[in-house]
Amino acid sequence: QVQVAESGGGLVQAGGSLRLSCSYSGNIFSVNVMGWYRQAPGKPRELVARITSGGTTNYADSVKGRFTISGEYDKNTIKTVHLQMNSLKPEDTGVYYCLVRYGNDYWGQGTQVTVSS
Q1: Which whole-number Å values give the CA distances from 84 to 18, 41, 52, in the listed order?
Q2: What is the spatial distance between Cα 72 and Cα 66, in angstroms, rounded to a whole number?
Q3: 3-state class of 46 per DSSP?
Q4: What is the number of other CB atoms lying within 10 angstroms of the CB of residue 82?
Q5: pLDDT reported for residue 29
Q6: 89, 92, 72, 103 alpha-carbon torsion, rounded to 10°
Q7: pLDDT band at residue 106 using 50, 70 and 90 as cut-offs
Q8: How far is C-alpha 60 from the chain's CA centre?
């Protein structure tokens, strides 16, 4: 069984910064992708940023230049991802979910990020 653990959410004023972290445990030998998605009230879940086992990163247009995703590797496999979020805006508010893709998709339970204006 795979367990995904997230940390780092919270309340911050607009213009501030937060750092999210995500790791996993279980019988996984080679993760393909890890990433962060978010869901605001009344809206569908959307991609924020993701990183592949080869180090390729993708970002939503709305966060480019403000957010940075990075990974920690062990034996060429992603073990932990961090999402550094700077210059936060109220529209960044939502529940942030970590994705671990190893064949199937495994999700964390989510961490709340609230940006006040």
Answers
A1: 6, 22, 17
A2: 20
A3: strand
A4: 17
A5: 78
A6: -160
A7: very high
A8: 12
Structure-token match 């993701």, residue found: 50
Residues 6+ apart with CB under 8 A from 14: 88, 89, 90, 115, 116, 117
Containing 104, the helix (H) or strand (E) segment is: strand 104-107
- Is the Cβ–Cβ distance between 85 and 19 less than 8 Å? yes
Tens of pLDDT, residue by residue over 7-66, are 999 999 999 999 999 999 987 778 989 999 999 999 999 999 999 989 999 999 999 999
| Residues paired with 94 in a beta bridge | 113
Tokens of 33: 């992708």
CA atoms of 13 and 30, how far apart (whole Å): 38
